[in-house]
Recover the amino acids of this structure.
């Protein structure tokens, strides 16, 4: 099943447009899970069980697995195995290299880890993005990131329009909607609105909800497509390391449920206007 | 020892400015090495023994290790262990992400794998590059890549100058020369010349020599700094999978020696003009 079909089915089944990032941070994992790689596996398995009915996708960011060194691959494999088969997985690695090398990266995420989609960095050019958009694959091309430094390059004026818009325009021209969407930081709703106008039928992954300060309702309203779809808000730390009165699983479940409901409410409100 | 000091010492010791890429490609590894991850380890160990006295740096590209899945980390660790301690290692991953995540990537390459330098993608902004330029680290920021698609974004006009030049200018302003150099494809000497004028004191890694068609002498002449230094031409496939009449180790040694001598000759010729 294609990524978009699987995403759509999971979204309907769980009445959710929420993606949760699965990023193991040694210093934030509760001591009750133990220590080291086994703690990360144990922690993420329990987070997945606690949140699976609230999400339509999971997004492990490869950086947090690589930081564990060699055991990182084992943590990632165990985490992927714990994700219910009907929930699509976006491997967030933002890889980008020349074509021969990009093909190796794409093979690693799609054939090695059986990801449903992967994030890709655009700077190297479209021939470096293409291997991630091949048959049966799906690329979320980084357009506008959620960090303050995003302005340094992404906002530069290129022929009267910002560079991040050019990235999206070029990809829309080259890659079909069923193989390519975009990463648009939830912290920048104005930029998301601008991009929706040049990519009306594309999926936008909106990371940066919660810990990074992105306003969920604002981001959804800005990025929603004409049919009330096309948005995938994503939260990581604010769900899996959620503070609260209870044990970490209950806190994560509560945070995920609350974000899911807020996202649905924001979507309904935007569509009824 | 800092990356630049270690590089300079290795360069003097081996009378070489050549970097060799260590990229295990299952289909290209000789059958005599066996199959699977152990073959890659065996192959790369022998390549390193055959070429170590001809090079001043090695550059494993992470994509080719990740394609092996979980055993990729073991291949990389074994390969790094086989590199003589006096030869610096550039881990070529072209990572790029928001600051919190970039810090995890930088920790993985510098603390996990003890790399001397790492390549970094600039699109996310300078706050995503900064963790790779911290104390004791060295970032080679991707400026102009060696692929045909490099033109798609990197050459876009930004205020009368190409984007790749802006990348370099911004990094030169923000990060000191002992912590930050640039990746400039050997296939584009005109671009390298332009960048030398805005970054007179920076190291340029020049990948794409050989298999990708980069002309070694042309690239060196274009990129050399005012003191006859600052260039690090890099060849991968054309050395480690070199065709020839002998066994693969001898072919690799011959190819590396030939490139080393050509690089030295090109450098001498350029300096004597």
């Amino acid at each position: 099943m294609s990524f978009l079909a699987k995403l759509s089915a999971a979204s309907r089944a769980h009445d959710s447009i929420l993606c949760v990032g699965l990023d193991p941070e040694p210093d934030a994992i509760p001591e009750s899970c133990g220590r080291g790689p086994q703690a990360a596996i144990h922690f993420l398995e329990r987070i997945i069980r606690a949140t699976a009915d609230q999400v339509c996708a999971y997004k492990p960011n490869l950086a947090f697995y690589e930081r564990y060194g060699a055991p990182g691959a084992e943590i990632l494999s165990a985490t992927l195995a714990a994700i219910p088969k009907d929930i699509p997985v976006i491997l967030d690695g933002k890889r980008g290299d020349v074509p021969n090398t990009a093909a190796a990266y794409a093979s690693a995420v799609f054939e090695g880890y059986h990801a449903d989609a992967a994030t890709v960095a655009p700077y190297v050019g479209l021939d470096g993005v293409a291997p991630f958009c091949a048959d049966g694959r799906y690329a979320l091309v980084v357009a506008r990131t959620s960090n303050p430094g995003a302005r340094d390059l992404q906002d530069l004026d290129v022929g009267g329009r910002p560079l991040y818009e050019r990235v999206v325009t070029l990809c829309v021209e080259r890659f079909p909607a069923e193989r390519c969407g975009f990463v648009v930081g939830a912290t920048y709703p104005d930029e998301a609105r601008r991009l929706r106008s040049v990519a009306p039928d594309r999926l936008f992954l909106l990371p940066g909800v919660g810990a990074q300060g992105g306003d969920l309702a604002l981001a959804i309203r800005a990025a929603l497509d004409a049919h009330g779809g096309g948005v995938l808000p994503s939260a990581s730390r604010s769900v899996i390391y959620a503070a609260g009165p209870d044990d970490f699983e209950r806190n994560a479940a509560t945070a995920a449920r609350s974000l899911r409901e807020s996202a649905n409410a924001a979507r309904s409100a935007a569509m009824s206007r």
User: Anything to note?
Assistant: The first helix of chain B runs from residue 3 to 14. DSSP finds twelve helices and ten strands in chain B. The two ends of chain B are 34 Å apart (CA to CA). Strands of chain B lie at 19-21, 57-59, 90-95, 117-120, 139-144, 157-158, 161-162, 180-184, 204-209, 231-235.
